[in-house]
Amino acid sequence: MGVLNVTPDSFSDGGRFVDRSAAVEHGLRLVAEGAALVDVGGESTRPGASPVSAEEELARVEPVLEGLRGVSLSIDTAKAEVARRALELGAELVNDVTALRGDPAMAEVVAGGDAFLCLMHMQGEPRTMQVAPHYDDVVGEVLAFLEERIAFAVERGIPEEHICVDPGIGFGKTPDQNLELLRRLDAFLVLGRPVLVGVSRKSTLAKVVGDANATTGSVAASVAAAVAAYTRGATIIRAHDVRETAEALAVAVAVERGRITA
Ligand code: HH2
């Protein structure tokens, strides 16, 4: 899953793809580099980010979704109105970082649009989530949350086969909690759904390599984390640096198989 942020303030690529043609070009580049899906987002969820209106978010993503017709797309939004329009424009998956808690109309839009859905764990909300994250058992609590959210979605008419789950690296978690979630990622496989991981460029990676104040991790660190997630069972990797990530994953897969082709 390649990341295409059409925002002025995303933590690692804010402002780079606000211009429609630059965004469309970048989306096509992500596909050429190996992305099976392009995740278009019009609102930053970085720690401390301020919310934007549905009108503003739509104005950002609509022209880009139109320009990427024919590409497999997901829409990174917590707003039903934005999701509805994105599905009309051909998006296949709704990536809702609130896991259907942000907008009461979202479940109906996903069910009615016959869309796929990513349910992500977040403790708190983006403005304050990194202030003092706390868990007694981070893996157990995130797992219980995702299990409850799957049941909620299914009750509202979203087929279980359309759902993938995400522990939400960096969303209300300390670096050690993020690393524990990655270390024990295979615990999420009991849910019986594909596991998505978005660790690309996140600041935990910078902290691991000794850069305590950096807000973004390097490409090399992101690729290592992607491979670690894959080897523990993740099958969807959300990444900014698609070529490097896809190449690393191709090698990880080939080593696992012991040959180049399937
Ligand atoms: N991370 C970000 C945004 N959306 N969606 C899922 N499912 N999982 C993630 O880990 C995830 C996500 C944050 O990264 P980015 O989009 O690069 O930044 P921003 O939220 O600042 O736009």
Describe this structure in words.
The chain is of the alpha/beta class and 262 residues long. 40% of the residues lie in helices and 11% in strands. The chain has nine helices and eight strands. It has a six-stranded parallel sheet with strand order 1-2-3-4-5-6. It is globular, with a radius of gyration of 17 Å. The structure holds 6-hydroxymethylpterin-diphosphate (HH2).
Q: Can you tag this structure with a few keywords?
A:
262 residues; alpha/beta; 40% helix; 6-stranded parallel β-sheet; two-stranded parallel ribbon; binds 6-hydroxymethylpterin-diphosphate
Short description:
Helix content is 40%, strand content 11%.
Give the strand tally: 8
Detail the poorly predicted runs: none
Distance between the termini: 21 Å
Derived structural class? alpha/beta
What is the number of helices? 9
Bound ligands: 6-hydroxymethylpterin-diphosphate
Compute the CA-based radius of gyration: 17 Å
What is the helix/strand order? EHEHEHEHEHEHEHHEH
Helix content: 40-55%
Strand content: 5-15%
Largest sheet: 6 strands, parallel
Widest sheet, order of strands: 1-2-3-4-5-6
**Average pLDDT value?**
96
What's the overall geometry?
A: globular
Draw up the topology in text.
Blueprint lengths: L1 E4 L14 H13 L5 E4 L12 H14 L5 E4 L3 H9 L4 E4 L9 H7 L3 E5 L17 H18 L7 E4 L8 H9 L12 E2 L5 H6 L10 H13 L4 E2 L4 H16 L5
Helix pairs in contact: 1-2, 2-3, 3-4, 8-9
The structure holds 6-hydroxymethylpterin-diphosphate (HH2).
